[in-house]
Amino acid sequence: MSAPIVASPAGFALPEAQRRILRWFVYLGFGAMVAGVAHGLAQALSYAGINILPVYPRLHSYYQGLTVHGVTNALVMTFAFGNGFLMLMTARALARPLNQALVTASFGVMAAGVAMSAWAMATNRASVLYTAYAPLQAHWTHYLGLALVVVSTWIATAAMIAALVAWRRENPGQRIPLLAFVSVTSWIMWWLASAGIAVSFLGFLIPWSAGWLPRVDPLLNRTLFWFTGHAIVYAWLLPAYVSWYALVPRQAGGKIISDLYTRVVFIIFLLVSIPTGLHHQYTDPGIGQGLKAVHGFLTFVIFFPSLATAFSVMAALEMGGRARGGRGLLGWIPRLPWGDPSLSAQLLAMLTFVLGGATGLVNASYTMNQVVHNTTWVPGHFHMTVGTAVALTFMGIAYWLVPYLTGRGLWAPRLAVAQGWIYAVGVLVFARGMISGGLAGMPRRTFMAQATYTQPGWKLAGAVTAVGGSLMSLGAVLFFIVLVGTVVAGKKGEGPADIPWSETITAPALAGWEPRLDRLRVWVAFAVILILIAYGPFFLMYHPHLVSKGYRFW
Amino acid sequence: MRIHTFEKAFLGVGAVLLVLFAGALVYATAAMGVHLPGVAGNVDPARVYQTPPFNTPGVRQTGPGRYEAVIVAQAFGFNPSVIRVPANAQVTFTATTIDVIHGFAIDRTRMNMMLIPGQVSRNAYTFRERGEYLLVCHEYCGIGHHTMSARVIVE
Description:
The complex is a heterodimer of chains A (554) and B (155).
Chain A (H helix, E strand, L loop, with lengths): L2 E2 L11 H31 L15 H33 L5 H23 L17 H31 L7 H16 L1 H15 L8 H12 L1 H16 L1 H5 L6 H14 L16 H35 L8 H4 L5 H24 L4 H4 L4 H30 L6 H27 L18 H32 L13 E2 L15 H22 L13
Antiparallel strand pairs in A: 1-2
Chain B lengths: L4 H26 L27 E6 L2 E9 L2 E3 L2 E4 L4 E8 L4 E5 L5 E4 L5 E6 L4 E6 L12 E6 L1
Parallel strand pairs in B: 2-5, 4-10
Antiparallel strand pairs in B: 1-2, 2-3, 5-8, 6-7, 6-9, 9-10
């Protein structure tokens, strides 16, 4: 007995006014990525000792470019796309438009924030990298701009929750459509997680950079940043998981293995994403080893839902491959529709994520972290997670989403298939270089082309990094070409009429304990309790040392 | 909750692996003495050079087979820039910064700490091999970040 994961299987068309804004979110995200990718090539080549910075007009330094790379790719692209994608999923799942004023406000606030921060970065007033560690001090417009990006996600969350509450009122006793459940849960998790940087930016960094607060405590701000900073990776990842769980099975010809299981996985992410942040601060002074160990343990726990995801998504794919005539143990794999650029990009993203997850477990491994912390191992790891599992999945989604939102058919679909492969092969080569360099102690965030030191073992690693990074850049450029081609020259009227939502094998239970899973308020309360346990001891006992004035060492 | 047999097996193996990994980490800490930096006191970054032990950066013996290396970081260098320590002796590195956040990583070892204004960073290491090691700042600290390094000479 298959069951749909949306409220109105027959179809639902979003009002054009809302489609337009969701389109702008997608364009804003990928537009930011153009700026981010542009300097990525210079960084990859720098590891091979090649300096192409003079090619970039008005660029003051490697670190200015690196700041743009991190902010635009990791903060703007991810949240602009996430906002647009998850709001669309929620509206489609509930078959009701969102509050137009909130959708418009969400976009306006994000656009204003991106503009402010872009000005500060472009004029070299904010070369502090995307982590913005105090006491390096950017211009106040940079912090305020990034804060507005976060506020935009809050407004989007409010729009989604409002639609869900209204739907629940009109449909008493019914289960939340699965697609709405996973979409709203993702952004509620992020809303909780963003409390850390909200306090850091609004309470300290903005008043400090504006001159109202003379000094800040670097460790306190760093800890607030990482309160948000690990969960932020799940905020990037969960929209991709929404696609893998709820859309990819349909694209592969299969079905979602379990409605119940999918909900449980997203609830675990809501519960455990946040109380894990200290594993980014294992090597920090001023934080006790006991609390670091607690966060390390919880990071191992959060690995579990990703393991479950690996099984569920793979099972749905196998079902699709077998339905298409695949035989034998692995015969279903070549039978998957690899010619569909949207699916193939996401399959390659999943494969890369296996290595991303494994390297992430090393990062989380308490004492072992000391071998790799702040070496190129770390960017090697996260270019396979956010840089591929997320970014390449978003590109894959764009291959149906942009045609859906514009009504134009995908332009050059075969080029789009090639794009995914080039990018994925590129990132695997790139990460191989970064990972081996990191194991040999090569520092991350460093202009290696002009470093005054080197070590044996870094040279080959750097060369491999440069080759892989060049392939990634080519893959990204091809993506932009396909995207612009679709918007400008895609055949009108050939866009899909509906999103590729999947069915679950069994319908969600209406009786018993399972409907309680839909009480999101209760799960939020449990999440807050876990956060208090994991972070309470630090914030209660920490005595702030407001010791640092701002520095502009760039 | 209906869970497929294969899924049970997959998740079971995954859980066992995670527990084994966690066990290895407990063993490394409890039995092998591999520790992370922790709470080691505070220092006003504006008064680092007036505050012991940072008023005399360098290496000193603190007991039989035990040494302390006191190091002060600032953009873009370490003081002292050459650190001489004996092999097969426990060296406690005590370090801080007078300006922004810096990194403190000694190549080919697990010595890896963040230096954060206001905080004292401390961890111990025993070098088994003689030779020259590279100490680098591995956190972005400004325009000259890629020139910030020092040498550790194990004799």
